[in-house]
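Hi there,

I know you've been waiting on this one. I reran it after we fixed the sequence typo, so this is the corrected version. Both the input and the resulting structure follow.
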Amino acid sequence: MTQHLTAQQRLALARSPQRPGPTDYLQGLFTEFFEQRGDRLQGDDPAIFGGIARYHGRPVTVIGTRKGKNLEENLRTHFGMPEPEGYRKAQRIMAQAEKFRRPIITFVDTPGAYPGLEAEERGQADAIARSLTLMSRLTVPMIAVICGEGGSGGALALAMGNEVLMLENAVYSVLSPEGFASILWKDAGRVAEACEVMKITARDLRKLGVVDEVIPEPENPENLTTRLRLVDAAITKHLDAALRLKDPARHRQEKFAAMGRAWVQGGNP
């Protein structure tokens, strides 16, 4: 447990290159993974992976972001920032999960969607919006795990789950603390203050009702075995609960609508 850390320290841990990412959880928790590539329109984006796998023997669909394990992979995936092809690929895989009645499990670790001119020209905003629309209508249960950095709509586009889980030292925010400080105070150096004001930590977001469970992390960040065990236990518990839902789509819609109503009314979800 790391309850003594500041929000800025948790941000640093969430961004650490040594931190296990979605591909590590894929390899450690799932078997018989068959990756599906391409959006059937433009091409394939390696910043998002997805496909069919087994989770404790149950057929599931797994989707996640990918940053890469070396500089070459980092550059190829834009350091985990998906392009519109990635979101359209995710939509295709989610639609397939709907057709074959497979629950969906997503892993999110991204600073946000890739902001390049070419991505915008190819419909970045539209791809994210269509992902949100599709997730709101899926009739199969969906579990989302924020396992590193969850940045803006680029993260939300894979995280509209019936149950949203978040690792203890992950962060989840509407934009980066650096961007927040630059916009609000015209001073990017006030990152530590921005981290506190924005309520980006797992425990803050649990209090606000944005996430459903905070998954503890081992003191030793290299202890992957314990980390996998804790994440596995949380997913199993929440997936079992989600599979009992009579109407997963309605549950998801009401869940996220309640967050919006609470903020409009000036209270907490």
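Quick highlight: The chain has a mean pLDDT of 92.

Best,
R. S.
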